[in-house]
């Protein structure tokens, strides 16, 4: 799963990292690379805690939405990939029927977003269930 991260530094060397889509999830490091590695660990632990407490992982907002937040002004933006799906239970294969044209449009859209068909459909379902 991909997470947007914003990094701030007061001295240009040490960085604090915040995960806007996971309130309360933050970390830091002595370098930009250290902060990114540290925030990956923080995300993993945060999501594990949410699942253990039966709290659903919040839906992600867009980068533009986060950048509009004045709390994050002047930050350095990054996207990190953290394999938190392991906390969501094992994957299950399903068989669904989708019109060919719709399936082609799903595949095209997912590819533009850098997602698999399955990843896109899961994200679309989560979004619809939160509406």
Count of helix runs: 4
Q: How are the strands of the biggest sheet laid out side by side?
A: 3-2-1-4
User: What name is given to the CATH topology of the largest domain?
Assistant: Double Stranded RNA Binding Domain
Q: What is the distance, rounded to the nearest whole angstrom, between the alpha carbons of the first and last residues?
A: 21 Å
CATH level 1 name of the largest domain: Alpha Beta
When the domains are counted, the total is 2
Query: What's the main sheet like?
Result: 4 strands, antiparallel
Notes on the protein architecture:
This protein is an alpha+beta fold. It folds into two domains: 1-90, Double Stranded RNA Binding Domain (2-Layer Sandwich), CATH 3.30.160.250; 91-131, Orthogonal Bundle (Arc Repressor Mutant), CATH 1.10.1220. The chain has four helices and four strands, in the order E-E-E-H-H-E-H-H. It has a four-stranded antiparallel sheet with strand order 3-2-1-4, covered by helices on one side. Helix 3 packs across helix 4 (117-130). The protein is globular. It starts with a strand and ends with a helix.
Please give a quick description of this structure.
The protein is of the alpha+beta class and about 130 residues long. Helices cover about 40% and strands about 15% of the residues. The protein has 2 domains: about 1-90, Double Stranded RNA Binding Domain; about 90-130, Arc Repressor Mutant.
């Amino acid at each position: 799963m991909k997470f947007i991260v914003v990094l701030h530094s007061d001295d240009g060397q040490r960085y604090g990292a915040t995960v806007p889509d996971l309130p309360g999830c933050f970390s830091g490091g002595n370098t930009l690379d250290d902060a990114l590695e540290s925030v990956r660990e923080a995300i993993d632990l945060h999501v594990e805690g949410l699942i253990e407490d039966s709290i659903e992982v919040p839906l992600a907002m867009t980068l533009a939405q986060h950048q509009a937040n004045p709390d994050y002004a002047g930050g350095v933006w990054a996207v990190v990939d953290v394999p938190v799906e392991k906390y969501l239970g094992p994957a299950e294969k399903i068989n669904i029927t989708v019109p060919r044209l719709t399936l082609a449009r799903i595949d095209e859209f997912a590819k533009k977003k850098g997602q698999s068909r399955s990843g896109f459909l899961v994200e679309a379902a989560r979004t619809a269930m939160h509406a």
